[in-house]
Specification:
The structure is a homodimer.
Chain A: E1 5-9, H1 13-22, E2 28-33, E3 46-49, H2 55-63, E4 67-70, H3 77-85, H4 94-101, H5 103-112, E5 120-123, H6 126-138, E6 151-155, E7 165-168, E8 184-188, E9 192-202, E10 208-210, E11 214-219, E12 222-228, H7 235-251, E13 256-265, E14 270-276, H8 286-289, H9 294-302, E15 316-323, H10 334-340, E16 345-348, E17 358-366, H11 369-384
Parallel strand pairs in A: 1-2, 1-4, 2-3
Antiparallel strand pairs in A: 5-8, 6-7, 6-8, 9-10, 9-11, 9-13, 11-12, 12-15, 13-14, 15-17, 16-17
Amino acid sequence: MAFPVIGMVGGGQLARMTHEAGIPLGIRFRLLSDTPQDSAAQVVNDVVVGDYRDLDTLRAFARGCDVITFDHEHVPTEHLRALEAEGVKVRPGPDALVHAQDKGVMRARLTEIGVPCPRHRIVADPADVARFAAEGAAGEGDAPGGDGWPVVLKTVRGGYDGKGVWVVRSAAEAAEPFRAGVPVLAEEKVDFVRELAANVVRSPHGQAVAYPVVESVQVDGVCDTVIAPAPDLPGELSGQAQRLALTVARELDVTGHLAVELFQTRDGRILVNELAMRPHNSGHWTQDGAVTSQFANHLRAVLDLPLGDPRPRAPWTVMVNVLGGDYPDMYQGYPHCMARDPQLKIHMYGKDVKPGRKVGHVNTYGDDLADVRERAAHAAAYLRGTITE
Amino acid sequence: MAFPVIGMVGGGQLARMTHEAGIPLGIRFRLLSDTPQDSAAQVVNDVVVGDYRDLDTLRAFARGCDVITFDHEHVPTEHLRALEAEGVKVRPGPDALVHAQDKGVMRARLTEIGVPCPRHRIVADPADVARFAAEGAAGEGDAPGGDGWPVVLKTVRGGYDGKGVWVVRSAAEAAEPFRAGVPVLAEEKVDFVRELAANVVRSPHGQAVAYPVVESVQVDGVCDTVIAPAPDLPGELSGQAQRLALTVARELDVTGHLAVELFQTRDGRILVNELAMRPHNSGHWTQDGAVTSQFANHLRAVLDLPLGDPRPRAPWTVMVNVLGGDYPDMYQGYPHCMARDPQLKIHMYGKDVKPGRKVGHVNTYGDDLADVRERAAHAAAYLRGTITE
C-alpha cells in the first residue's frame, strides 16, 4: 500500500481536524502528542507521546513518516533545520516557518518585499518605546490622538490568542513585556475598522489557491466570529488582500496553509497583522462552507497533490468559537442546539472545559447573513452556558 | 466530560466513515475490529480486536460503551438479545435488526404491514422452486416470457454484494443454493426499469428524516453508481417511496439509518428489494451532497439526538464506487484525478486492493447531471486502472 504517512507534530484541535480531513484520502496519520488525552490523540490510531522540543524525539518520530507538518508553531527552528539537513521532508519548511514564529523576522521580510505593515521596530526598553511613540507623533501613522500612544508591544516569539501582546499608553506601562527576556517588537496601534483574514494554500510545486477574504471579530484578544466572505468588502480591496497573501506565500516559500491576518484601516488600506503557517481559526468555516476545507487543502499541499477548489458553497458562512464558560459539560447543550437548527454544524475538540479556553466552534451557512449570524451566535452562547434558552 | 462512548461493532469502511462523522461531535468512539489493520481500526484510537460472534467478547466490549451500533449485520441475533436483556443499549435493536439479517423474516413482516414486495415464498428444494415458478406463470407477476422463470433464489441469511443470490432458469439450476443448509427464499425476477433507494433515519423517540430518493446502478450484483436525486422520478412515486421507507422504519422500530432498496417496475410501481439497517452504499453521496450525511445522522439517532437536515446541497450528486482492479496502488491516481477535477471528493477506505473489492468511492456534485456523472465515472475508472488518461 503506497499511501503516505503524514507526521503531525502537536495534538491540538488543528491536528484533530486535519486527521478528520485525512481519513477520506486514505492517507496514514501519525501524531506526536504531548499527552494521550490531547484533542487529536483521542481520535488518531497511531499516537506517539513525546516532547516536540527534544530533537531525538522528533527524529524518531519523523523516521516513520513521509513528511512532517505542524499543529502549532513552537517547534524550535534549529531542530527543524537539523531534520531537513538529515533528509526529512518538513512542510512548511523552517525557513518559511520562522516568519510565523518570530514577529521580528516576519516584519523585516514583509517590509523587504513591499507588503504593507503597521509602523514598527524592535525596541530595547521602555524609554525606547517612548521614542517609538514619538516617532509616530511626528510622522505618519494611524495612532489616534496624534501623540503616538498607545503602542502595541509584542514579544517576537511565543504569543498566541492575545498572549504576549500588550497595549501600553506610556513608558511606565511598558515594563512588563521586557521581563520575558525575549526581544520586543513595537507597533503602532492601527485605527482599523475591522480585521480580515486572507488565507491561501500553496504547494511545493508552486500551485496556490486563495480562499474568500473573511471578516474576523476578536473579543478580548481571541477570535470570536468569522464571516465568510467579509461583508461589504470592495472587490478591489478583496483582490488586493488575496494577491498580498499569495505574494507572501510565494516569497516566503510557504508550503501548506497560510493565514494572513489583516487590518482594514479607516482610510481603506490593508496592513498585515500576523501570519500563521498552519490551518487557522479564521479558516474553520471552510469545513462546511467551502468546496475544499483548509484542512484538506493543507494536507494536499503537504503531500504535493493538486489543490482543491477553495470556492464557497453557500452565499454566507459564519463561524463562532465556543469558549469554555461555567458549564463543564458541552454535550448537554446538543439537544437544544440541534433541535433549534437542523443545519447547525458543531465541531467540538474533546478538550476539558476551562474558562475562556477554545473547546469547539459552530458553523452555519445560508442565504441571509443576519439569520446565519444569529444561528451561530445563539448555538455558541448556548453551548457555552451564556444563555439558557 | 459527559460525552458518550459509541461502541461500533465491525471495523469496515462504514465504521471508518462513521468515526469520521463523529469526530466533530466530540463523542468518543470505541471499535470492535476483526484485526488491527481493518479499515476503521487504522483511524480510530480506541480499538479492541476480537470476535463479534463471541458473546463474552461483545459483553466486555459493551461494558465500556454507552450504546453499541454496527458496521455490518452479522452479529448473531441471540447475542444482541442477551446484551439487551443485560441492559446494554443496542441500536438498532435485535428485534429490528433481524429484518435486515433474515430475508424470510423481512418478507413476512413487510407483507404483514402491506409494503409491496416481489412475489415470494420460502422454498424447500429445486422441485419446490419449479412449483414457485409455475405459480408465477399462472397468476400475476412481472416474469418475462410468462412461464415464471427465471426465479431469484436467496439464502435467507448471509448474503451481500451479490453473494448468496442466484438467478435460475430451471429446477436443474436450482440445486446450489440449498447446499448451504440455510433456508432459501424464492422471489420472482422483477422486470424493473431501474433500482432506487429510499433511505431514512429514525431516532428512539420517533423523529425521522427522509433523504431524497436515489437511483442505484448495479454492475455484476454490486453497487456501481448512485445518482441523487433519481432523475425523472415523478414526485408522486418519490413521495410514495419515502413514505414507504418511513413506514418500514416505524413499524420495525428501527433506530439509526435504514436503507430501503427498491425496484421501479416497468408499469410504474415500487417494490421493496432489500433492507439494511446501517449506513449504506446508496447513501455515501450524502457525505458531500447533503446538509447532513447518513453517517452523522446515524450517530445522532443512535445517541437519541435531534436529527440533522437531510436535504441536498447541490442539484445533482453522483457517487461511483472504486473497486479493486489491476493496480495495487490507489494513491498513484490521485494527482491526475485531483488535477482534472478540483471539486472531486475522494473517499478511500485503507483496504488492500483485491479484484472487485470495494476500496473506496468518489463523489461529485454540480448543476449539470451529465458532467457530474462523467467526472465521477472518470475518476473511479482511473483510480481503478480501467483507464489511464
